[in-house]
Amino acid sequence: MIRYTCSLNTPESHLIIYLALNLLLTLLNKIVLCQYPYPWLLTAWHALCSSMGTYVSRRLDSQNLEHRSQRKNYYILLFSILYTINIAVSNVSLGIMTIPDHLVIRSTIPIFVLIISSLFRLHTRTYSPLTILSLLPLTLGVLLVSHDSLTLTLDTTILCLLGALLSACKTLSTNSLQTHLSIPALTIIHHVAPLAGIQATIWSYMNGEIDEFPVKQISSTSSPLSTSHSGILLILTNGLVAFLLNWSSFTTNKKAGALTMAVLGNIKQVISIAISIVIFRDANASFTGFAHIFGIILAVGGGFLYSLVEVGTFGDSMDNMFGPSKEDLSENAEEDIGGRKTVYMLHELKPRRFLEVKRWRIEVSRLTIICCGLVFTFSVLLFWVYFLLV
């Protein structure tokens, strides 16, 4: 009998938590922005909550209060500047471009991550050709989802490509700070969040959001965000989820890698389009045509193919099922547990070809269950939307 243990410290668990928090924050942001269209003020609120959250967490956990060297402080300062510039370029490009245009250009972030990591040798191993090929259907799927709303120009394309490049550099730098310099995620957020909050507040003032917000707060007395307890609870929950998402983003980046984070970001964008239709009835986003449905399936399928190639490690699952390989056996084999040693001996008696098929069958079955569950859930949503519209 094969037993599977569930741990929250695995890359898969971190990815699931990150994606869930990301989608939850998207829903909360949409609810808030529908009543108060002030994205820069909302970004400043997220930064403030992240700063307060890291301050409390670092006080509760004394291990995070480490004495850093001047070299680490220098790299954190550089990363803070990169982080704030990335937010500025991304929001400016989103302000002058349509959402489909922005989505298509941002879908190239995994490709930028792959190119930069290959040029500067930022990864510890080379990516397989199948990993590179799995990025193509993902990017093509995003393109098909937004193909009928594209209004790209040369200037906006260059600006958005610059934002995608900066985002790729930020993702790689996040991974490098935690893996090579061993800087905790809370420490990075503690120094980055205040700068991001200051920058967001300045942009909010330049766009007139700070002057307009008090006027609307006084005039719209019926707004739930200003009069009801549920509105205040919504704002506080939004800030808490933003802090948890930032924390999860940094820790997941360390566990899963920069390229996986970029791929997951594309999948999140496609799912967000579906959510905007199902829940908010967004008229600017629709997948009523065959190309839209095929694009979503292609994007999700590309993400599944990537997880099958890159994230689904067959060797680790084999160690859990049949015991370690010959290279992983300790020199004192008699100290191993008897049952584990017996299972390994039985494993060696089986034909090698059968083992390869067995390995593939067992590993794919686990991923197939997850994939079928996602496909079933998404199919139910599609039929639900169809009957609601009809």
UniProtKB/TrEMBL annotation:
One of its GO terms (cellular component) is endoplasmic reticulum membrane. Its main location: endoplasmic reticulum. The chain crosses the membrane at residues 15-32, 76-97, 103-120, 127-146, 152-169, 181-206, 226-247, 259-280, 286-309, 367-389. It comes from the Eukaryota. It is found in: Endoplasmic reticulum membrane. Residues 17-307 form the Sugar phosphate transporter domain. Keywords: Membrane, Transmembrane, Transmembrane helix. It is a multi-pass membrane protein. Belongs to the TPT transporter family. SLC35D subfamily. Involved in the import of GDP-mannose from the cytoplasm into the Golgi lumen. Homooligomer. This is Sugar phosphate transporter domain-containing protein. It comes from Botrytis byssoidea.
